User: Fold Aminopeptidase N from Sphingomonas hankyongi.
Amino acid sequence: MADVRATPEVLTPPEAPPSPTHVATRREDYRPPDWLVPEISLDFDLDPQRTRVRASLEIVRNGDHDRPLRLDGDELTLISARVDGREVEPGLDGKQLVLDLPGSRAMVETEVEIAPAANTKLMGLYASGGILCTQCEAEGFRRITFFPDRPDVLSRYRVRMEADKDRFPILLSNGNNIAAGEEGDGRHWAQWEDPFPKPSYLFALVAGDLKANSDSFTTMSGRKVALNIWVREADLPKTAHAMESLKLAMAWDEKVYGREYDLDLFNIVAVADFNMGAMENKGLNIFNSAYVLADQETATDADFDNISRVVAHEYFHNWSGDRITCRDWFQLSLKEGFTVFRDQSFSADIGSAPVKRIDDVRVLRAAQFPEDAGPLAHAVRPDSYIEISNFYTATVYNKGAELIRMMATVLGAEKFRAGTDLYFDRHDGEAATCDDFVKALEDGSGVDLSAFKIWYSQAGTPKVSARLQHDPQTRAATLHLEQRVDPTPGQPDKAPMPIPLRTALIGEDSCAEIAAEQLVLLEKAQATIEFANVAEPPLLSINRGFSAPIVLTVDRRPGELERLAQCDTDPFSRYEALQELMMCALVASATGAAADLEPVTRAVGATLRSDALDAAFKAEAILLPSEPLIADRLDVVDPDAVHESREALRRAIGNELRDDLASAYGTSGAPGHDLSPAAKGVRRLRNVALALIAAGDERVGATLAHRQFMAADNMTDRQAALGTLVSLDAPERDQALAAFYDRFHDDPLVLDKWFALQAAAQRRETVDEVQRLAHHPDFRIGNPNRLRALAGTFGYNHWAFHSPDGRGYRFLTDMILDADKLNPQVAARLIPPFGRWRRFEPKRGELMRESLERIVGARGLSKDVYEQASKSLA
Ligand code: 0A1
Ligand code: ZN
Assistant:
């Protein structure tokens, strides 16, 4: 009997400073598994303090070799191990249990003990608000039982669980419930069987006092699927939107990808403590409650949209993830990039497609471009990792989705569908690779896509410059394109990438398309494209719909952007023209150059007054680029200059366009309980206008915002009003914050908003505020949502976080180190704001570097945080 818990959690001894003994796993070292496990039976004796897990593994040798069986384990107390019924004393190698098996098959049985209530990492089996639940992706199953915990070992699971009936009346696992019964001593049991072989990371179990919102969906072949969303009884009224989203997603996947659900039961469970958004376990999705629970009083329009998106994302994984999984974790984007692309298309189809595209690009620019430009840059298919949890990134997810979008654009809808049909058919039931995916698209469509594979392996955002020359005499226009990719860690030399650019020419005078859109594929470092018969001066409309995830610089004449902001026939490019116009002014003033704000306010005014544009689009278009985005354009970042330049433009817009903003604010057609895209758009425009009105005149803004706050019958308007008030020095600010707290302090998801709003406030005092809030009785460092609401939000409050005295850095550093002791995965995700230290003015850059050094030098640091902080320093 060995206590595996004695093995140190971190590979370095706690007293020594962490060092590179945290070994990296490398993609090129992949080898197929030595042993397979076609069948597994699990028997859980559930108890929050001490749970017994008995596992029976049918083991089969894979190939001709004489290597022992190695089973992964983490924080397990081993009680016993048997091979073919005989008790054995297994060897331990680090955290692995090692067994020499003579034959080609064996039955390996283990019995272990685990402590769910003490599991603060929220990986494996843990307790959340009285519910026992699991999280196994990526390497959490080894915290439940000994197993070859890798995604290319697929097994059929049989699960029996037993628990106290009063505390845990509902017992769920993957697949179908095949039997249940009582034990007579207040305990009861249930047995579940999943007919589909799956990797261990898709295993799930839930036990708790839960109630279901139950419904059904009839699939395209006429099968009735029972649907349940399991929550605490009090939350049942907040599950309607998630259920509607689920049914829409099921119908969409049938229509758009021909994918039908394959079990007779689909369960979703919401829990309050969860490291990420949600998890696609086969037939039993487990969700962060933030992505399930919503009603108009407590959730914003954005929350509702996020619920649709995440419910659809997890459901779509049933095919792109569960039926076809990843061979190894380097292939993570195989399921994540594709599934994000699928959920983006779904959201575009059920809402406003142009606004959704704007939103997706905003996320990409805010989260992925900085990643690609900083010390944590990695390829969509990375080459190595120390801790795989650190690679659930915007690069793997969002850039991975962009890569698939580019291939879909090149193929066109029909051929892309032929490719995905072949992919689902060819690899069903397998653990596949990104190369398999591209090959299936090629074979299904008959189009060579091999050039696009470099997007999987080469990190960094391509920088493209474009210049259009026009000769009125010959009526010829020539487009000159050039691309380059800057070096990223480990990749000093870059090759040109295939870049599909949807391109058109707009007539400067006619304000119409004078050269119809075409798809230009820039494959080499440079290219020249000719347009004939261009009579009037042309405006270049390029990278329409953001057809490639690049940073684009266009050499333009003064006035071009303003004209394009009115004339471009592609909604995304029209948005982009106004944003770029603002950005040029912002960068100029942040660097001390003379900035002419007049063309900007003129273009914003024209956009506000346009009859051709809907409210949602107007709101997105007039929203100023964020401070981090402005900072990304500067060689040396001075956060005060960035802040002042943005505030000056906000003030100018607020003052110059008082009447236009007032009439935008007065737009009607958004009753608080109307969730149609049109009503959501009106609320968005009104609230963007409110913030700009307040920028022009604080007093007027405070009065309007407070009035809106008091009268609001929905959380969108309430939160937006408070969002405006928190950045003002008005008496209404504190009154509203107190009223919000009084009304909602019993609702954890709304309380998260209260913390986040204050952490996002654009005031000098925000650093003091977050310090105070960290000692607030409702602050829970162990709850990922609450920690992210305070510390995560603060890290992206550019001006406040980069407070010149370094107090913002100190606050976040302390928070990371404290959080790391409980939950390394979540702590590591707070590090990226420090990673840009080289780009800041020297004083701040030095303070940021010191923070990273303090983190790396801390005792007992997890490998999660060690990897992110040490790479950020390099
Ligand atoms: N596969 C999930 C994301 C996810 C990854 C890791 C987790 O562990 C804490 C949880 C969830 C998805 O893409 O939805
Ligand atoms: Zn996913």
In short: The radius of gyration is 28 Å. The chain has 27 helices and 31 strands. Residues 135, 137, 275-280, 313-314, 336, 392 surround O-methyl-L-tyrosine (ligand 1) (CB under 6 Å).
